[in-house]
What we know:
InterPro entries: Cyclic_Pdiesterase, Phosphoesterase_HXTX, RNA_CPDase. By secondary structure, the chain is an alpha+beta fold. It has 4 helices and 9 strands. The strands form 2 sheets. A 5-stranded antiparallel sheet has the order 2-6-5-4-7. It has a 4-stranded antiparallel sheet with strand order 3-1-8-9, covered by helices on one side. The longest helix is centred in the middle third of the chain and has 17 residues, at 92-108.
Amino acid sequence: MPRLFTGLEIPAEVTSTLSNLRGGLPGARWVEPENYHLTLRFIGDIDGVTANEIASTLFRINRKPFEVALQGLSSFGGRKPRAVVASVVPSKPLIELQAELERLLQRVGLDPEGRKFTPHVTLARLRDVSCQDVADYLSIRGYFPTKVFKAERFVLFSSRASTGGGPYVVEAPYELTP
Length: 178
C-alpha cells in the first residue's frame, strides 16, 4: 500500500543552499538533501485503485508556472519543537494550486486535510530538543538570502513508512503550462 503526497521538487541550487544549514543542533535528525520538497497535500496510505484514480485526476489541473520564494528558517511545535523548516512565502499561485489539489482529492473521496496549509521545506525533525537549543540554532543560521525558483511542475510522490521520511519517489509529474 503506497503512502502518497503531492509536492514541489526543490531545484539543486536551492537544495545546495539549504543543505549548508545542516548541523549545529544536537538531537536533530537532518533530512537528506535529495529528499527536500514542499508538500502540497499529504494523502497517506491508500490502496492501488485509489492511487490510480488520484494519479489520473491530477491531470485535470491546468495552472501556469510560478515563482516560489524561500525566506529564512523557523521551527514547528512551539514549546515542544518538532521540526526546523525553511519558510516559503505563501504566494497566490501556490495557495491556489494547493486549494485546487485539496478540492480534487476530496472529490476522489479523501477526507479534508486537517491542518492549515503552511508552505515549508522540512530540514530536520526534532525529538527531545530544547527550545533554547532551537532558538540558538535559529539565531545563528535562521537567516539566509531569499532563494527563488520557478515551479514548472508538481509531482505525486510516494514514500515507504520509515523513520525520518524518505526516500521519496516521483510517481507522476504534472506540468504547469504557460
